């Protein structure tokens, strides 16, 4: 049985001659698909406290791979945030900094596609132990993505169908290379070079015990029924929404009043225009069919 993963506290930079483990377990998803929820569950399970882990401490259990300040650490000062070449040249140093702590496991959140951008491998197998990929009905992703990024539903449908879809680089996060929704899902679920567990957001909601148990087994953590139940309760939407209302959430978007605003599946039925539903089904038919999203 593998050891319980250590908590991740920060980056350590070292020379290229230092041996490093392939310790990254990627927690990957298209934006607004349940990545944050999954990390909060893991934090609560690993800490096993009598109180929910504060949502603004979750970064200690799975930092992002696109945090601007970590790129500035590698650059040793200011850099051109809007220059793709500059940002991508720094990525190697950021990932090396993560694995250089010599931990057996480092959980790393990513929204990047498992591909290359301008010739740079975004998810290098040499740093990778395994991955967890969370997939969500793209019709619900559209509703949540639009709210988070301050876009119209129509703009979001178009963005999620483009091969060149990239998030904006700013003082918080650098570019994240998404591609289309279908491309993103296929990149993480087909022909992977490392063990990858695929979880449906909808199953995390309707079958949390089974889904989160499979997550723990995948990362090599023993499953304890009472501890599992508590972690699920402590990462419930009601608990997270209350925490955000009382103390805010560092990962919230300035374009959206709340990060944990609804969280339910099926919002698209009442919120998304019929023609946009049809466009989305046409653009992503094969992948939606594979994951059971053409039934509704």
Descriptive account of the structure:
The chain has 296 residues and is of the alpha/beta class. The protein has a domain of 200 residues: Rossmann fold (3-Layer(aba) Sandwich). The chain is 42% helix and 10% strand. It contains 13 helices and 7 strands. The strands form 2 sheets. It has a 5-stranded parallel sheet, sandwiched between helices. Strand 4 and strand 5 form a beta hairpin. Helix 1 crosses helix 9 and helix 2 crosses helix 3. The protein is globular. It starts with 23 loop residues before the first strand and ends in a 6-residue tail after the last helix.
**Global mean pLDDT:** 88
| Fraction in helix | 40-55%
Please tell me what the overall shape is: globular
Order of helices and strands: EHEHHEEEEHHHEHHHHHHH
Distance N terminus to C terminus? 41 Å
At the first level of CATH, the class of the domain at 24-137 and 164-249 is: Alpha Beta
Which residues sit in consecutive blocks of at least 5 with pLDDT less than 50? 1-17
The CATH homologous superfamily of the domain at 24-137 and 164-249 is named P-loop containing nucleotide triphosphate hydrolases
Number of DSSP helical runs: 13
- Could you say what the CATH architecture of the domain at 24-137 and 164-249 is? 3-Layer(aba) Sandwich
**Number of strand elements:** 7
Rg for CA atoms:
19 Å
